[in-house]
């Protein structure tokens, strides 16, 4: 018989040992007071756990609405006070809330960004620049059977802001949970048997080493009532990290769709059952009945796996995709489109059922302990300027600040002179042989490529010219306007967040501009905020013209990229190298 | 006394030897045990889907040739049951045998060389033992996703005292009661193992205890072993009649009217099982049952009340015998009915 016991049982057995005088067995044991004797390794494990908990507890946030009634949990992730919680915790709280930490203090906090689909929100605690924060783990390394610690404020017990700790194991990883209501699909989440109860929402899930691996957000419920029944679900921290900069953008961020649906066949393969002809996947060659092999570097063996992978990426990210047709494998990188129309995501659009509405589809977002009537936010005077209401944004303040920062960096990179209304005359080569000239005027953009001409009149619809560029002339015009008049020219101009450049490169910060049907994505190095390239789509039906910059140099006295690498539809068009750059006032009159 | 003391010391020594490893493993991940057990647990999809009746469940492979043990419940009340292995392979399973006394059914799929549990090599533990529970609770897993695993401690090893709706559960033998919430929708047929992955018991259907709380329990494999072996060896096989009554709904069992008589109204907690009336030209009338007969034994079970009699009726299967012993004046009279097919 092999028996593993709890510490209490062990002590009883060991107590018996003393009675029977088997004292030699006690050599390895130590006394722990009150006559109990506990194995050294048990005490060590216990002490380790205690140490871990005392290390992670300061990062746990108890969130309350401004009147201190409803609430949930959260976790600090950096010293500036940025904290992650559930969307359904901050929903209805307004722009400001009160947060308690285990130091016993109440801090004001401001809403930063929300992800209604993924049930994630970011807030910023205010008043310090040295907040304790959690260490971020890697949720892809979490295995079934691992020990976990869930911290938070279940049933709002933490009147003194000391979080409740529950301990359990990982019951499953990469779980897919169907949407409850219209939003709130939980993909690739971690299932735990640690007690997760109302009020735990938004609180952290840690691994045994005290690294943050998830955000507790959902529980399975059925006939036993809306409390823990042994199955809680945490949003993986890797998903949250994908969305982190998007959340910091102050926007209402969206999840992604491939623009295609997939189905699994009886032989276990997963094939495309439907695909939108406007989707980037279709434009990149994916067709109905193609078999998916891998997506974002992960094998696809079921529809749920596909949804799991898709669900952890923000709208607009590019991810690698491999498919098979007639036995031939093709690898592409696809740009993911938004899952929702913008109107669907703004307040007033469809929302998930509140805690009081009947919805017996398990699992549900963890209901909040108190019903929450939206209350007029009490905004502390000193922080009023940290919140700006604007449609489409959770808090426009954060977007404006970051956009201004990147534009400021742009001025530093390209110099102030480029911001005047001038005609640009460029001359250089394509691929070091074909001579090329560009005229970027106020009413027309023209290029002479070897012996060929391309023209884009600015009062006409943008055309994909020159051939095979997807609209290089329009792209260059957008670039000129970005440098000259970003505030006035674009109909929309905002900070998106970050994404891996071209799907597999380093993360870059992204600004988006729109003008009519023309959309551009501007990519900034995250270290020195340099513009490293951009994509311009002339409309929704064309794949973008992609331009990546070479090193910065000086051309005719102005800082400028020494090369423009131009791509379209996943193939290289050519590299433009400029030799001369003239900027002339329009009234000077320039012949073409 | 000496013998027992020596035995006691021996077992304590062996316990103490395992304590160190048990303690060390407490802080470590259970992922090794999890990896061992997972390939032997399967997901089942079958009948159900109506309110409170899950159309998913769990089973455990008990032979390399595709014999799967599970709880005999409404899920199997369809022509075929879809069985999904840990690697995502899908099979259609047929019920090859059942044992209603221990709530067991064996499903067979056409497959070979599968990982399986040797059910004669199971563990027995007492209160306080760490346990793992594997099952497809809440249909969290489909395809090749592994089933959910939970951990807890054995609270007690005791007799099951439970009821299903208004009725007592058919099984009242030994069970492990555990402190984890193991018996959720879909968990029936899952396994309870030791912390190092040794087989302990089969998670039972959702049942409430006599105090109206949900039970978290598993039937030890030592109880199930003989039936499993018999069915796998072909010594016991299903008949279609068995499945015809394998219905979870509470009103589906037999009632006294099926045999041609009515009982007095069941008005108090322990209403004595008096015959109220006998319907003409029925089996009861032919056998000579009379009003005011008090039923005291049914199939050998002491009938305390109408409720216990209904419990016996619930477990009847078409083709069974129903033996009633009634007290008439100061005599005991025995009647043997044949259980009819239900319409």
TrEMBL record, chain A:
Belongs to the peptidase S1C family. The lineage of its organism: Bacteria, Pseudomonadati, Planctomycetota, Planctomycetia, Planctomycetales. Residues 345-374 are annotated as: Disordered. It comes from the Bacteria. Residues 256-327 form the PDZ domain. Its EC number is 3.4.21.107. This is Periplasmic serine endoprotease DegP. One of its GO terms (molecular function) is serine-type endopeptidase activity. InterPro entries: PDZ, PDZ_sf, Peptidase_S1_PA, Peptidase_S1C. GO terms for biological process: proteolysis. Keywords: Hydrolase, Protease. PANTHER family: SERINE PROTEASE FAMILY S1C HTRA-RELATED (PTHR22939), SERINE PROTEASE HTRA2, MITOCHONDRIAL (PTHR22939:SF129). The gene is degP. It holds the Pfam family Trypsin_2.
TrEMBL record, chain B:
Residues 1-23 form the signal peptide. Residues 257-330 form the PDZ domain. SUPFAM superfamilies: PDZ domain-like, Trypsin-like serine proteases. Gene3D superfamilies: 2.30.42.10, Trypsin-like serine proteases. InterPro entries: PDZ (IPR001478), PDZ_sf (IPR036034), Peptidase_S1_PA (IPR009003), Peptidase_S1_PA_chymotrypsin (IPR043504), Peptidase_S1C (IPR001940). GO terms for molecular function: serine-type endopeptidase activity. It holds the Pfam family PDZ_2. GO terms for biological process: proteolysis. Keywords: Hydrolase, Protease, Signal. Belongs to the peptidase S1C family. This is Putative serine protease HtrA. It comes from Thalassoglobus neptunius.
